[in-house]
Design a protein that fits this description.
The chain is of the alpha/beta class. Helices cover 34% and strands 23% of the residues. The strands form four sheets. The protein has an eight-stranded antiparallel beta sheet, covered by helices on one side. A seven-stranded antiparallel beta sheet has the order 5-6-7-8-12-13-14. It has a five-stranded parallel beta sheet with strand order 17-16-18-19-20, sandwiched between helices. Helix 7 (259-270) runs parallel beside helix 12, helix 8 (299-316) runs parallel beside helix 12 (400-419) and helix 12 (400-419) packs antiparallel against helix 13 (425-435). The longest helix has 20 residues, at 400-419. The N and C termini lie close together (11 Å). The structure holds 2-deoxy-2-amino glucitol-6-phosphate. 2-deoxy-2-amino glucitol-6-phosphate binds next to helix 8.
Length: 606
């Protein structure tokens, strides 16, 4: 997803902007650029490719300026090339804009501007903004900016600098996140905390629709209706080193290895010493009469939702439907009464999930969200929140936060069962005591990393891999397939094993590796039959089984053992070998593990 950084102050402007862009790079991008005003003149440098390409152009230059903006672009309209990179200028080269989001009415605006005689240089939607500001400018940049943003439809976080206003950065936050960082005699603006955390911990999460101006010593913010507001200042308790990857080669590997700590941390946050579960941010959401959850999420979070369905129904005897957010948001909202929409999101900024929340609230559904990033839009717009406390997740492929989501949902399901009085304290204790063993079980698997490297060496040249599972490990098969495809670009599909005979079995031959997720569960025998179906068609079986299960070895070309645990907790263990397998396959293929091609850490556009 695109990233915006802006700075006004006395530091070396190019290093503040370039380092800021590097820290935004985890969001996913394909080009970058900066612009500064020096001696009242706008200068701009931008380049397709990695940020190193841009810094190569700037190396050796001394830029004397105290105001500038920068951008990492994740292409939506127009191919990734130099011209389509941001920042974008108007024809007079007096206005310079960077943008995160999509201008949905850009074609209408572009045609209007072309009729006015404007010559467009790029294929982007963003360029219409700089020309529109120029069109409206008479003697006030602020007024021209306001008139412009009133005409824009869609999502847009914008930062503007202009030769007519050389000591201020104008900004607006609409649909895409934007924060202000407050310093001593310096100020920052950014798409997320990462880019400015090494300079300041005092930030303002701009509200949707808010716009204003930032100088070196002042900040003015207006609401969408033009009323001056005093924004809330938040202090960040993250440390910059949290987002360093040492001693690991990649953030993804670091985050895989953080998982035992993450599970322990979540348990300590939500479970007291006498095994009482307490969620402190439900904000009065009454769950005692709930009759249905509608879970909506995207990608890995959707997989967590699918597992959540099993847990909520199994433990609390409450119906839990699950929908992909991009489908949910356009579906008819039918209330049965006592429904709660449950959103799951790591970033708290996923456009489809946020739109699902807006739809739900417009139909008076209360919204409970499981979210990792505090003060994210989803955090702020939900009625109740359960934080997944996984810490900052930099790798685009979600790993530790998936485990955090499962752990939080597991605790929530027990909590709900107790609230509805359908689980005894003794049963709850049994579940919680088993959960407390999970960190050690994960460590046990992590210590076998060498095995997953060897497995990757054996299968990394496959051109497709099938993952199959049953019950709660059907979503595990989906997640395993997603991990592999998103970082190694090998085509991978997850399937309910019971579906094999309904089509996928046609794929099976001696060249197709099939990851068979077959821990000790109530559907183990059925999985064994599916494995034999695969074997009898010469498929290669990579079996995930429970330690001590010798019987299954005869059907395995390769076998991965996980520690024995209760059925409901197997997904927490199954995902670890699959994360490591994908990681090493991607490494063997020289893929960019932390920033896979075409992907973004947070999909803030539809
Ligand atoms: C997972 O590895 C992917 N990065 C992606 O599927 C992600 O889970 C999805 O975009 C949802 O993101 P969110 O949890 O931040 O809403």
């Amino acid at each position: 997803m695109c990233g915006i950084i802006g700075y006004i102050g006395d530091r070396d402007i190019s290093s503040v902007l370039l380092v800021g862009l590097e820290r935004l790079s985890y969001r996913g991008y394909d080009s970058s650029g900066i612009a500064v005003i020096s001696s009242n003149e706008l200068s701009i440098w931008k380049k397709a490719g990695k940020i190193q390409e841009l810094s190569r152009i700037l190396s050796g230059m001394t830029i004397h300026s105290n105001i500038g903006i920068g951008h990492t672009r994740w292409a939506t309209h127009g191919v990734p090339n130099d011209i389509n990179s941001h920042p974008h200028l108007d024809s007079s080269k007096k206005f310079c804009i960077v943008h995160n989001g999509i201008i949905e009415n850009y074609l209408e605006l572009k045609n209007e501007l072309i009729n006015d005689g404007v010559l467009f240089r790029s294929q982007t939607d963003t360029e219409v903004i700089s020309h529109l500001i120029s069109k409206y400018y008479t003697d006030s940049v602020e007024e021209a900016f306001q008139k412009t943003i009133q005409r824009l439809k869609g999502s847009f976080a914008l930062s503007l600098i202009s030769e007519y206003l050389p000591d201020q950065i104008l900004f607006v936050r609409k649909g895409s996140p934007l924060i202000v960082g407050l310093g001593k005699n310096e100020n920052f603006i950014s798409s997320d905390i990462n880019a400015i955390l090494n300079h300041t911990k005092e930030v303002i999460y701009l509200e949707d629709g808010h716009y204003g101006s930032l100088s070196q010593t002042s900040l003015t913010v207006f609401s969408e209706k033009g009323k001056k507001v005093t924004p809330k200042i938040s202090s960040i308790n993250w440390n910059p080193e949290d987002s360093e990857k040492q001693p690991y080669d990649h953030y993804m590997l670091k985050e895989i290895h953080e998982q035992p700590h993450v599970v322990r941390k979540i348990i300590s946050k939500y479970v007291s010493n006498d095994n009482k579960i307490n969620f402190t941010h439900l904000n009065g959401l009454d769950l005692s009469n709930i009759s249905r959850f509608i879970i909506q999420a995207c990608g890995t979070s959707w997989h967590a939702g699918l597992i959540g369905k099993y847990l909520i129904e199994q433990y609390a005897n409450v119906v839990a439907e699950v929908d992909i957010s991009s489908e949910f948001r356009y579906r008819r909202m039918i209330s049965h009464g006592n429904d709660v929409v449950l959103a799951i999101s790591q970033s708290g900024e996923t456009a489809d999930t946020l739109a699902g929340i807006h739809e739900a609230k417009s139909h008076f559904f209360p919204v409970l969200s499981f979210v990792n990033v505090k003060n994210s839009t989803i955090d702020r717009e939900s009625d109740g929140v359960v934080y997944s406390h996984s810490g900052q997740e930099i790798g685009v492929a979600s790993t530790k936060n998936f485990t955090a989501q499962l752990t939080s949902i597991y605790l929530f399901s027990i909590f709900l069962a107790r609230v509805k009085n359908v689980m005894t304290p003794e049963e709850a204790d049994k579940h919680l005591n088993e959960l407390k063993k999970i960190p050690e079980y994960i460590e046990n698997i992590l210590n076998q990393a060498e095995k997953f490297k060897k497995l990757a060496d054996k299968y990394y040249l496959s051109n497709q891999i099938l993952f199959i599972g049953r019950g709660m490990n059907y979503p595990s098969s989906l997640e395993g397939a997603l991990k592999l495809k998103e970082i190694s670009y090998i085509h991978a599909t997850g399937y309910a094993a019971g579906e094999l005979k309904h089509g996928p079995i046609a794929l099976i031959d001696s060249k197709l590796p099939v990851v068979c997720i077959a821990p000790d569960t109530s559907t183990y025998d059925k999985m064994l039959s599916n494995i034999q179906e695969v074997k009898s068609r010469k498929g290669k079986t990579i079996i995930i089984a429970t330690e001590g299960n010798k019987e299954i070895k005869q059907y395995a070309d390769d076998i991965i053992y996980i520690p024995k645990t209760t059925e409901d907790l197997t997904p927490l263990l199954v995902s670890i070998p699959l994360q490591l397998f994908s990681y090493y396959v991607a490494l063997n293929l020289d893929c960019d593990v932390d920033q896979p091609r075409n992907l973004a850490k947070s999909v803030t556009v539809e």
